[in-house]
Amino acid sequence: MAGIYLHIPFCKQACHYCDFHFSTSTQNQDDIINAIISEIELREGYLKDKLIETIYFGGGTPSLLTGGQVKKMLDKIREVYSVGQNAEITLEANPDDLNYIKLEQLKQVGINRLSIGIQSFIERDLSFMNRSHTKDQATKCVSNAQAIGFDNISIDLIYGVPNQTNEEWRNNLRQAISLNIQHISSYCLTVEPKTTLAHMVKKKQVLQVTDEVAEKQFKMLIETLAENGFEQYEISNFAKGGFISLHNSNYWKGVEYIGLGPSAHSFDGNSRQWNFANNNRYMKSLENANLDFEREILTEEQKYNEYILTNLRTKWGLDENQIIQRFSLKISDFFQKEVKKHQKDGFLIQNQKLFKLTNKGQFLADRIASDLFYI
Asked: Which residues are bridge partners to 274 per DSSP?
């Protein structure tokens, strides 16, 4: 099994916190799509005839595309690759793009899962983040999608937003739950370099929330969603029964995937490669049936570190048996030594040969993973 990720590098406007690759000029949409189709053909053998179980349109803002543009890419994927009959096909979307016509188009061309970037139901927060939608559009697009027949809907929410009170965050969660959706992804607002938010923080126009506030809101997130039937299967991801994101879960489980489009990454089990994050360079290279990318062959240490980074964050945790079987004695000995320190501190709990983060440890996951890396 394997997955396909398509990076659609266009947005109406730049969110203040975002550091993904995108352009606010949509003049070259058709050209980028044609280039992606060329890349699909060029990389026919990358996944070695594996069955495609997940397809994910990310970005950027894929909901800026027409149904016809999405169909064109899906048709080519099905022509070149073997796609499972029940493949999960996700499209990331902004609420202001999802009118009835767009939703009907997406449903007709085969999109069966929506990931909607709502982020907040508070107008002040949406303005602060420079989102292009309103609270009313956020709620309306979900009800429209459900009316058309979408029954696998995820939304994104952000906590740790400056000036947002704990009660406002709780109300955001209540509003999300009231929508009767199947999945919620929720992330702490992070200040990434070279973003507008980073500039605002540097100029002291914005004060970041304290770790104490962020941790409190994170705990509220976990408790509130658990009380309402959502399982936390990864630190930032919560699903009702049967609605875990297959695509993202496969990333964490080390399943192979191909990334298409500018800046997209691919993984074949032994190496990673990534396309250059430049739209014009990407299109120009594919005009000549070529592709500009960089590639890295993973060492044993890198494979181990990636296993730690991805699996530590999930409900499946770290499997000591897998580490012993897959990696050298020096690495497994190192793991067994280091993991006991965090177990002693109450950050990890052991169940037979599985090590999982405690609630206390989840907020420190990045630090714990760094300590477990073999460098």
From this structure: 265, 294
Closest alpha carbon to 163 in 132, 131, 208: 208
Cα distance between residue 220 and residue 211, in whole Å: 14
Helices assigned H by DSSP within 228-277: 246-252
Please give the structure tokens belonging to residue 339: 């993991």
* Alpha-carbon span 301 to 76, nearest angstrom: 37
User: CB of 256 within 8 A of CB of 267?
Assistant: yes
Q: How far apart are CA 261 and CA 37, in angstroms?
A: 9
Domains and CATH numbers, the chain: 2-251 (3.20.20.70), 301-375 (1.10.10.920)
* Residue 42 to residue 54: CA distance in whole angstroms: 20
CA-CA-CA-CA dihedral for 363, 367, 371, 373, to nearest 10: 100
- Report the side by side order of strands in the sheet with 354-357: 318-319, 354-357, 348-351
Residue 342, both tokens:
């965090």
Q: What is the pLDDT along the chain (375 residues), one digit of tens a residue?
A: 899 999 999 999 999 999 899 898 888 999 999 999 999 999 999 998 899 999 999 999 999 999 999 999 999 999 999 999 999 999 999 999 999 999 999 999 999 999 999 999 999 999 999 999 999 999 999 999 999 999 999 999 999 999 999 999 999 999 999 999 999 999 999 999 999 999 999 999 999 999 999 999 999 999 999 999 999 999 999 999 999 999 999 999 999 999 999 999 999 999 999 999 999 999 999 998 889 999 999 999 999 999 999 999 999 999 999 999 999 999 999 999 999 999 999 999 999 999 999 999 999 999 999 999 998
Query: pTM value?
Result: 0.96
Can you say how many angstroms the Cα of residue 286 is from the centroid of all Cα atoms in its chain? 26
Q: Three-state SS for 211?
A: helix
Residue with structure tokens 């992330």? 187
Pairing of strands 354-357, 318-319: antiparallel
* CA geometry: angle 249, 252, 255, nearest 5 deg: 85
The first and second tokens of residue 106, run together, are: 């997406």
Token look-up 């405690």 returns 358
Strand partners, 159: 188
348-360: burial string, b at 16+ Cβ within 10 Å, e else: bbeeeeebbbeee
Tokens of 231: 């399982």
